[in-house]
């Protein structure tokens, strides 16, 4: 028996003005967003580093999000969407 696990995506090329709510709303078009986070600068927590992560409810929705959004416009910038690799 396989338990449903969230499917984590890496999003690069985000506009610096983007918020977690923007990400959740945008990726919600592909399915259920479990969580979204934008990585912030260590020195200045207000400044985005231009990338983040979105967790989709399952692999099918994650793959749909990649197909829908990779290379597409988000807030005036072309974003890259791929499966997040585990931390080394």
> Regions with pLDDT < 50 over 5+ consecutive residues?
none
**In the CATH hierarchy, what is the architecture at level 2?**
2-Layer Sandwich
CATH topology, anyone? Alpha-Beta Plaits
Q: Give the total of domains.
A: 1
The overall strand count is 6
Shape: globular
CATH class division: Alpha Beta
Question: Per DSSP, what share of the residues sits in E-state strands of 2 or more residues?
Answer: 35-45%
What's the SSE pattern?
EHEEHEEE
Radius of gyration: 13 Å
Query: What is the mean predicted local confidence, pLDDT?
Result: 92
Secondary structure: helix percent: 10-25%
Distance between the termini: 28 Å
Largest sheet: 4 strands, antiparallel
Number of helices: 2
Main structural class: alpha+beta
Give the strand line-up of the largest sheet. Answer: 2-3-1-6
Assigned CATH superfamily: RRM (RNA recognition motif) domain
Describe the 3D structure.
- By secondary structure, this protein is α+β, with helices and mostly antiparallel strands.
- The protein has one domain (7-83): 2-Layer Sandwich (Alpha-Beta Plaits).
- It contains two helices and six strands, in the order βαββαβββ.
- Helices cover 22% and strands 35% of the residues.
